[in-house]
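HOLO CASE FILE
Compound: iron/sulfur cluster
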Amino acid sequence: MNGIFYFSSTGNSLYIAEQIKNELGGEIRYIPKFAGDVNTYDKIIIVSPIHSFGLPTLVYNFIINMKSSKPLYIVLNHGGMEAFAPYYAYQLCKKSELNIRSVQAVMMPEIYTLTFSQPKFAINLVLRKAPKRMKSVVEVIRDDKEIVIQKPKKDKWTPKHLENIKKFHLLVKDFKITENCTNCQKCVRICPVGNIRNENGSIVFDDKCVACLSCYHRCPEKAIVYKNKRKKDRYINPNILEKNIGTDQV
Ligand SMILES: Cc1cc2nc3c(=O)[nH]c(=O)nc-3n(C[C@H](O)[C@H](O)[C@H](O)COP(=O)(O)O)c2cc1C
Ligand code: SF4
Ligand code: SF4
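Model generated. Tokens follow.
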């Protein structure tokens, strides 16, 4: 059986995981909560967003702690700038002595939109194109086609990624909770690293943020704002059920 492991803040990666499950079958597992053995699956498929030209912290940790010789397939998704993330992921798997067969990338709507807004037509266009791209992604996995990711001539992105992830925990210093907060505590429940607490009726952030932006996009009141901007646009993939983000489908 296929084990489809995913990390997702706004559902783009979950959408991809669900497409793979629909076509190839298998169980969908949410990486931050997975405590089992990946070797119970015949094929291991990891679906992840790209964060700052590389892997999200939790996906990186998952890969380096994996011990397996099962065929491994990675499907990354990004908002238009994959940079050298596929090569970075491929190399990481090689260094971890994993049986990496392919790393593929799919463009999805950008969610790092703290300082700018994506026009709706651009989001819809990307969403409309995704199913076609998913067809070829699924074929590569189904047929076990090997894709060797060649070393780029000059890897200018990986150093930037390594620099940026060191600063991820600082993001919440620029988050503010506005008067619109109803103290529903959804952000406390969905933060993948338990970085948000309710303290005497107020929402407070700790210092282990991994900059996933789940809380920012999924607060029902848009009460989490960045640098005091009152931007109203938030994003959740319209082709999944939001309540399924962060859950398994077995
Ligand atoms: C911290 C962070 C960094 C990101 N960095 C990149 C990037 O380097 N290149 C890119 O194209 N998209 C980047 N994105 C956008 C996401 O990769 C993209 O929107 C993805 O589809 C989100 O998937 P999800 O909803 O499953 O989390 C970033 C998003 C976040 C939250
Ligand atoms: S999800 Fe939004 S409204 Fe709910 S507690 Fe968090 S900040 Fe407040
Ligand atoms: S505090 Fe928000 S952005 Fe940071 S890890 Fe938690 S949910 Fe993600």
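CASE NOTES: The radius of gyration is 18 Å. The helical segments are 12-24, 57-64, 85-95, 120-142, 157-165, 186-190, 214-218.
CLOSED: yes
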